[in-house]
Amino acid sequence: MKLIILNKMKVITWICFLSCWHFFPAQAQWSYEEGNLRFEWNLTNDRATLTEVPGGAVTWQGGLLPSFWIKDERGQFRYLKARALGKPNDKGEISLVLEKYGTGTLVLERKAWGIRISRLSIQWQGKAPAIAEMYIGASPIAATAVNVKPVWDRPFLPDWQTIGYCVPGAKGGTVQSYFRMWDFGQPDIALGNFGPSMSTPYGAAFPRPVLFTAMGNGRGWICIGAGSVPDGAMTLKIRGTRGCYQYLFREDLWGALPQRTRTWEDLLRITIDTSAIASFEKYYTSFPVDANKKVAPVSSVWNTWGMWRLKKYPIQPIADFMEKMSNEMMVLDDPWEVSQGAGKPNLEKFPHFFEEVEQVRRKGTDIGIWETVGWIKDTLAAGLGTNDLIRDAAGKPCLANWNFDPAGDAYYCLDVSSPRTRSFLEERTRSVMRRLKPRLIKLDFGYGMPNPDMGVPKDPRFRGERSSYEMVRLISAAAKSIDPNVIILYYGISPLWAPLVDMVSLDDQGDLWYDTRQGHAEWSIWASLLSQQRVAISGSSSYEWRTDDEVLMNTIILGSPGAVLPTELEDGTAIPERFLNRRLAVNKWYRRSILWKPVWFNSSAGNMEAPPKLRNWGRSENGILTALTLRTENVPVENITCSGNWGLISQDEHSITTTTRLAVIPFSEGKIELPCANKPMKVTKLSMQGTMPADNWSWAAGRLTITVTSTQLDHTAGFLVETAAL
Q: What Gene3D superfamilies does its record include (predicted)?
């Protein structure tokens, strides 16, 4: 009997759920159906397919059994492909054999959201070989099946075949997330924390780590993602239009593990749906959220990087500037430290550091502090030696920087398996918490560690993606031991990191290059995947005030406003009020809650025909539309019509059409008409000059109309409409 999941009706019958294994006499065959999609895996020849039903169009195919590139006892590299022996038993266990080198077990679990490879275990015969690389989706090269061999020095090739790939933010500057199979060329796309060091298109902080990929076309997509944090560097490899996952270990350089049994728990989770983002959403659903996770109230964040990147290092002037716009937190970014990673202020650059920080706090503004995850400049001052750092094959400490420029300023890389390094990270964090009492710690450069070709932590438990994960875990636990309410801010959107962090930032939009509108839209769409993970989302900003309105229109939906903007123009003159007003409005009226769902309306998360595009989209909390962004591509929403660009934010727990306090923010000249049962008691206009009664509104027959001219826009932050309760 087939497992039938009626996704639209959200009904799964108990009988069907108990029996999803389907076998044919000649082959070990497993199938799974959902809606009009059928996933079928022939275990005998390791060929899985995703097809549309009816019609039988194949949207993805490839293998899922593991394979290994090992160095054997004779010092020779060899490729081993696991082969399934028959069908799964009643526990979902599939017996594997790897030629004469070992046997194994792969365990499949049936889940309402999809398929889980819950365990892979290999038992080596004799001495365990050194695993250089592990693959999912690779097969030996058949001589008769390869006409054009790609640049590749291995006796196997990736075997995932599809028309399209979707990897959120795979390419930055400008951002691209959807690719046809031939668009990639022959790349390695780092999915985790090794962006700049993996020969991958440059990607800094956001949105990595993602640790998943979607593949498909038209109405059929499959998402294959990590079920636990991998102990290797996880990469999507494309060779000759075909893909696979590589987990880079390089135990041939760093030594094989001594045990003869090697186990990977929760290796993969696989979900299918009719769009890439829907398959991602199911993948996220597979990770239960801890309802007891304590999340501190979020804040509007102003980051000093907007000025400090220009080598202008004021503290008090920045604090005075952000105070005028009702920002609630000032984050002191790099280079506040005497040297990167030290956790102590640079009193030459900031001679009155402690006094200025205390003065900012006395005015009611919280403080945040930037910290590196794995880099440090002055190891001697930190009490760390060579054994506490990641070292190369010659025993020399590895150095890293943000773009891996070999001639650039560089930093030593901490080995989290060293007890002294672990103690240093914890004590540095506790010291910062005690001395500066930050309400937020912004963690950076977890993505900038050397890849396993260069160096690895000594303890294999903390290798691969686990290295940065463990450092974030240590820092978070140390900070919360001093203040349980401190906010831990990071970048990556992987649900595996959600238990560690309280806020994810879209990072500054410098990485978006010249296309802030499209780039921030895509980043906002992918950030929304976290909306049910008890993680706050900070919209961040670009470095340019001229593009800030596009950022703020998305921030209205995401939640917490964040900025890395300068406090003066390039010539040193004051920022015009026309730029400041909208940021003031969003800082005043943004939604503080962190559990929500996106409402797309006529926006799109993208497909193989067009990239993601935000037009009108909203924020739903418990099924209630609490915020809405309207752009010029207008459609009627909740009986609202408009010309121009607008943002609407409910100031209570009611919808934007029933709230008694509605914030209305114009982002262009135009007119908006809203349902409003009672004539407003008052409509006030907010600007940088203060609050005053508004006169550019009217009400008739249950409709409120607000009109804003170009001249008025320059002097208007927004409107607060207050009505009597029904």
A: Aldolase class I (3.20.20.70)
Contact between 702 and 676 (Cβ < 8 Å): yes
Judge whether 267 lies within some domain: yes
Number of folded domains that form the chain: 4
Q: What is the pLDDT of residues 335-393, one digit of tens each?
A: 999 999 999 999 999 999 999 999 999 999 999 999 999 999 999 999 999 999 999 99
Report the distance separating Cα 122 and Cα 396, nearest Å.
33
Contact 455, 392 (CB under 8 A): yes
**Helix locations, 183-331, DSSP H:** 251-254, 276-285, 305-308, 316-324
Q: Where are the alpha helices (DSSP H) in 203-275?
A: 251-254
DSSP notation for 100-138: TTEEEEEEEEEETTEEEEEEEEEEESSSPPEEEEEEESE
- CA 256 to CA 341: how far, in whole Å? 32
- Let me know whether 31 and 157 are in one domain: no
* DSSP line for 367-401: EEEEEESSEES-TTTTT--GGGB-B-TTSPBPEE-
Q: Looking at 178-187, 295-304, 359-368, 503-512, which range is the least confident one?
A: 503-512
Token pair of 618, please?
């909203």
Q: Choose among 604, 581, 527, 584: nearest CA to 559.
A: 527
Q: Rounded to whole angstroms, how far apart are CA atoms 526 and 612?
A: 10
Query: Sign (positive/negative) of CA torsion 310, 311, 312, 315?
Result: positive
Q: How confident is the model at residue 10 (pLDDT cuts 50, 70, 90)?
A: very low
CA distances from 511 to 254, 316, 325, 330, 492 (A): 34, 28, 26, 22, 15
Q: Give CA–CA dist 292/33, Å, rounded.
A: 34
d(CA 554, CA 655): 18
Residue 296 resides in a domain: no
Alpha-carbon torsion (394, 397, 402, 407), positive or negative: negative
Kindly state whether residue 486 falls inside one of the protein's structural domains: yes
In a domain, 293, yes or no: no
**Any idea what the Cα angle at residue 499 is, between residues 496 and 500, rounded to 5°?**
100
| Upper half-sphere CA count for residue 392 (Cβ side, 13 Å) | 10
Is the domain of 355 the same as that of 406? yes
Pull the structure tokens for residue 106. 């792969």
Q: How far is it, in rounded angstroms, from Cα 332 to Cα 620?
A: 33
Residue after which a domain boundary falls, among 252, 285, 318: 285
> Across the strands, what pairs with 273?
221
| Average pLDDT for the chain | 91
Range of the domain at 690: 597-722
Q: Which residue has the higher pLDDT, 628 or 512?
A: 628
